[in-house]
Amino acid sequence: MEYKHLGTSDLNISRIGFGCMSLQTHSPNNERLLKMAYDSGINFFDTADLYDKGENERIVGKALKEVRDKIHIGTKVGNQWRKDGNSWDWNPSKAYILQAVDESLLRLQTDYIDLYQLHGGTIEDPFDETLEAFELLKEQGKIRHYGISSIRPNVIQRWLDHSGLVSNMMQYSLLDRRPEEQCLDRAKAKSVGILTRGNLAKGLLANKPASGYLNYNESEVEQMGLLVHELSQQRTPTHTSLRFVLGHPAVSSAVVGIRTEQQLMDAVKTFSTPNLTDDEYQRLTSVLSPNQYSDHRMK
């Protein structure tokens, strides 16, 4: 496993992170899988209070309690479940964040969160009070660092320019290269670490049959999939896809949704495979025109 500091923080995180959203709520294998991930070198585990109405945090907290001082936990806030439990509302208010963090700490069985992330964000948010909440939580020692989880360039720009965030989590893959146009280089320039999700494009870059994805039609997705497989003689398609994402200098860690032992083993073996050559990178980036964000663009 390789490790990299997340932005300007002191969090030295594994370059493969465990996306805990993929865990099945009632699976008896969750605890074993999380411990196997730790034993395999993964030390960054990402969850959110939204997932399974907080049950995901409970699973993570219970499974990793014994190694809490050796791992880094990231969780998220901003989506508030309605009392009927059927839906949620966006709530980035200071009052809600200060309430929600205590509930997350309890579920995670810890007295601090390594990375507390705003789970989304809009340009209409009460930015100053949201930021004030995060800074207050740092002063109180309830969180070590804060970041956001957003794909909206204008929201990302505001946080880059006016806060002390250390990270942004965003979707990035060979089939979603939108972050390259406005976001990745700007984050790098501000020393903000990028956490990627959706690295395998819902499995389309690994083993799922081709179908339309974002602005690409089925034929285009199939074309990319065939090339990924062609370039995977010394790697699996998962390795090739992760090598592409991790090759960008702005990316600190690829957060991978892991549900099975096979998926875990495949992901952690990425660093025993060769890096992409310049020729391979050129072929992967030229087979399709890169997509771009159409909305919420930076100024």
Order of helices and strands: EEEHEHEEEHEHEHEHHEHHEHH
CATH fold-level topology: TIM Barrel
Tally the helices.
11
Strand content: 15-25%
What is the CATH level 1 assignment? Answer: Alpha Beta
Largest sheet: 8 strands, parallel, barrel
Number of domains: 1
Structural class: alpha/beta
Give an overview of the whole structure.
- The protein has 299 residues and is an alpha/beta fold.
- It has one domain (3-286): TIM Barrel.
- Helices cover 36% and strands 18% of the residues.
- It contains 11 helices and 12 strands.
- The protein has helices at 30-39, 55-63, 94-108, 127-140, 153-162, 179-182, 184-189, 218-230, 237-246, 261-268, 278-286, and strands spanning 3-5, 12-14, 16-19, 44-46, 72-77, 79-81, 88-90, 113-118, 143-149, 167-171, 193-197, 251-257.
- Strand 4 (44-46), helix 2 and strand 5 form a beta-alpha-beta unit.
- It is globular and about 50 Å long.
- The N and C termini lie far apart (38 Å).
- The relative contact order is 0.14.
- The model has no long low-confidence stretch (mean pLDDT 95).
Attribute tags:
alpha/beta; two-stranded antiparallel ribbon; 8-stranded parallel beta barrel; 299 residues; TIM Barrel; globular
Provide a brief overview of the structure:
With 299 residues, the chain is α/β, with parallel strands linked by helices. The chain is built from eleven helices and twelve strands.
